[in-house]
Amino acid sequence: MTYGPHAPYTCGPELMADVARRADTHDLAVHIHLSETTREVADSLDRHGCSPIELAARTGLYGGRLHVAHAVHPQGDADLGRLAGSGVTVAHCPVSNLKLGAGVAPIPEYLARGVVAGLGTDSMASNNTADLFEEIKTAALVARGVRQDPTAMLAADVLRMATQGGAAAFGGRLSGRLAAGEPADLVLLDATGPHATPLPDPIAHLAYGARGGDVTDVVVAGRRLLANGVLTTLDESAVRADANRRTARITAELG
After folding, report:
1. Is residue 170 helix, strand or coil?
2. In 114-184, which residue ranges form alpha helices assigned H by DSSP?
3. What's the CA gap between 90 and 107, in Å, rounded?
4. Is 213 helix (H, G, I), strand (E, B) or coil?
5. What is the pLDDT of residues 39-96, one digit of tens each?
6. How far apart are CA 87 and CA 99, in angstroms?
7. Cα(154)–Cα(141) distance, rounded to whole angstroms?
8. Count of beta carbons in the 10 Å neighbourhood of residue 174
């Protein structure tokens, strides 16, 4: 279980402080959106005299395990230091941030300061595909483009964020590594397609060429949830039909 106050501009400092106390009492983590847009930061500076990232510190949220979504616009070295604190993880969602025009998070600076960052897709409200391989590629390319530096983010950097960085958000219960004694969490891809041929560097392929549609099998804690491209726990046709029915109903109700 995790507490999930949405953001300072929807919850306010009093609620954030209450959540911090409850999280400490029950030893639970907190997930919150911070500094996603420049407007959010400007409003926080005007209303509270500090950035959203600093406001989270003032309300005590950094006292336990804190997972921060986005953090696109940290304010100076002090905010970087807060995000680099023990027990703090940051979810980088580049496709969502770009679609909403929120900006590009300074991930190379985060990694250089020791911030533990993982990759996320955000919701379907701001990401049409929710394809983590698309996030991996975008994270690397936008960092390079913004800095005009092809070494700003390497393939290994973004793969580490997608695996070990994401695992860290679960509070140390997972490692994000394939190793003896670790949970049997596996994703298998078809690497026989034209876009994977030739394949001199598997890491580069995973970062820049792989797609969600290449995934053939998914195993979670030893349980095979996707087998040869077929879901084993859900009826995909029924789920899609239900989604279409609900969309048609909502569209009709909206006129």
Report:
1. coil
2. 132-147, 155-160, 166-168
3. 10
4. helix
5. 999 999 999 999 999 999 999 999 999 999 999 999 999 999 999 999 999 999 999 9
6. 29
7. 9
8. 17
Which residue, 203, 206, 164, is CA-closest to 185?
164
220: tokens are: 């979670």
For domain 2-174, give its CATH number from 3.30.830.10, 3.10.180.10, 3.20.20.140, 3.40.50.1460: 3.20.20.140
Q: What pTM was estimated for this model as a whole?
A: 0.93
Tell me, what's the pLDDT at 174? 84
Q: Could you give the residue range(s) of every CATH 2.30.40.10 domain in the chain?
A: 184-255
Q: For the structural domain made of 184-255, what CATH number should be given?
A: 2.30.40.10
Dihedral angle, C-alpha 84, 114, 66, 61, nearest 10 °:
-10
Whole-number Å distance between alpha carbons of 253 and 255: 5
At 179, is the secondary structure helix, strand, or coil? coil
